[in-house]
Design goal:
There is one protein chain. The protein is α+β, with helices and mostly antiparallel strands and 385 residues long. Helices cover 16% and strands 28% of the residues. The protein has helices at 212-219, 281-284, 292-307, 324-339, 365-383; strands at residues 17-22, 26-30, 50-52, 63-65, 71-78, 81-86, 92-96, 99-106, 116-120, 128-133, 138-146, 155-162, 167-168, 177-183, 222-228, 274-277, 315-321, 344-350. The strands form three sheets. Strands 1, 3, 5, 7, 8, 9, 11 and 13 form an eight-stranded antiparallel sheet that branches. Helix 4 (324-339) links the parallel strand 17 and strand 18 (344-350). Helix 1 (212-219) packs across helix 5 and helix 3 (292-307) crosses helix 4. The protein is globular, with a radius of gyration of 21 Å.
Length: 385
């Protein structure tokens, strides 16, 4: 059974912007609104827009977000919608009535994605305007979620417009269940859509919506937060020449935006029913390995961060079978956490078979599906869901 390599930092992407379309759906980029066709701009902070994840609203004109699976949902009536959105270097999934209709973002170099057509679009100054039309006139549910992880940087949403006959409705009732995932490339879905271990471009094959974290949240009808950085570890990041990195994952855990040290997250906004911690692959995937005491100390510190002011919240530590050094270290860290009196459960994921790896030796979506079922069973048993 092959080992999963630690996540490498993403390759630089093609700076050109493009629109990804699915058959039967029309989505085009425009540089200006027509007052004769469209209604007033709805601001990102409008209460009829339901946000999920960590979002920075400090800038008056835009909502900024960078962690995987962060985004928003809304309900509207009509047959058209316009988004004022700068995806940056990210891909974002656009769904209407639960069906994936388009992927917004930079043009992938690999143009052989199944059932997807690509159009090159000219560069424009300022925020891009994405016009969505061709819908059946009536009531619709809309969602937009960040498909790529925080390593690809932030996306910025400036607002939306409906056609003049459209109406923005009250949001659906919020999900009652909440889960927080802490990890590396795996909850980001790094490479999970890749056909082979070598991929010329990484962005098209990163799909956090198909990761075990997103699949588990969807199956359990839970709102999720994914706090994951590809290539980062508990105390040591992938490829670091030292045994301890200056900025491992815990360094960024408390931020609203991974790339903004001043954006501290208000923990009172999200109180999870459980915290799932799956980290350690990058600590041990390349040498030199961290000293055991350093790893345990770093693990304890991350647990303290995650469980602060969350007395009674269950913690689930995930271990990956088959990578002996990592498996032993995480097992010991779990035992130490348990000895501290915390409510902690160990969940073991089976490693992928050799033919089940996508880009850079990262598991394909089929493996994430198995992992999600394993985790779902543990959560249901513990939480009574």
């Amino acid at each position: 059974m092959a080992e999963t390599a630690g996540l490498k930092p993403p390759l630089k992407s093609d700076p050109m912007r493009a629109l990804v379309l699915l058959a039967g759906f029309f989505l085009v980029s425009m540089n200006a609104f027509s007052s004769e066709t469209w209604g007033p701009l709805v601001a990102p902070g409008d209460p009829r827009i339901a946000w999920a994840g960590r979002i920075d609203f400090s800038a008056p004109e835009a909502a900024v977000f960078d962690w995987a699976q962060t985004g928003f949902s809304l309900r509207f009536s009509g047959d058209a919608l316009q988004l004022v959105l700068d995806p940056g270097d990210n891909n974002l999934d656009l769904r209407i009535d639960g069906e994936l209709k388009a992927i917004i973002g930079p043009l992938p170099r690999d143009k052989n994605l199944p059932n997807i057509k690509l159009w090159m679009l000219p560069e424009s100054t300022g925020p891009r305007v994405w016009s969505l039309s061709g819908l059946k006139n009536g009531a619709h549910a809309f969602t937009l979620a960040k498909r790529t992880g925080a390593n690809f940087g932030p996306a910025r949403f400036y607002g939306l417009r409906l056609d003049k006959n459209g109406k923005l409705e009250k949001p659906s009732a919020p999900l009652k269940r909440r889960l927080e995932f802490i990890g590396d490339s795996l909850p980001n879905g790094y490479g999970c859509a890749g056909a082979a271990k070598v991929c010329a471009e990484l962005r098209p094959f990163e799909n956090s919506g198909r990761s075990y974290a997103a699949l588990c949240g969807a199956e359990l009808s839970a709102e999720i937060q994914v706090l994951a950085l590809s290539g980062f570890g508990v105390v040591r990041n992938y490829g670091d020449k030292e045994k301890r990195s200056k900025d491992p994952l815990p360094f960024y855990y408390g931020r609203t935006l991974q790339g903004n040290p001043g954006s501290l997250w208000d923990r009172s906004k999200f109180k999870p029913d459980a915290v799932i911690l799956f980290l350690g692959s990058n600590d041990y995937s390349t040498e030199p390995n961290p000293d055991p005491k350093e790893f345990y100390h770093g693990f304890d510190g991350l647990v303290d961060q995650a469980m602060k002011d969350r007395k009674g919240t269950p913690l689930f530590v995930v271990n990956l079978r088959g990578r002996k050094v990592q498996e032993t270290a995480v097992q010991e860290a779990f035992q130490r956490t348990k000895a501290r009196g915390l409510d902690v459960t160990l969940v073991t994921f089976e490693n992928a078979e050799d033919h089940e790896f996508g880009c850079d030796w990262h598991p394909k979506a089929v493996v994430h599906e198995r992992w999600a079922k394993t985790l779902e069973a543990a959560l249901k048993s513990k939480l009574g869901w």
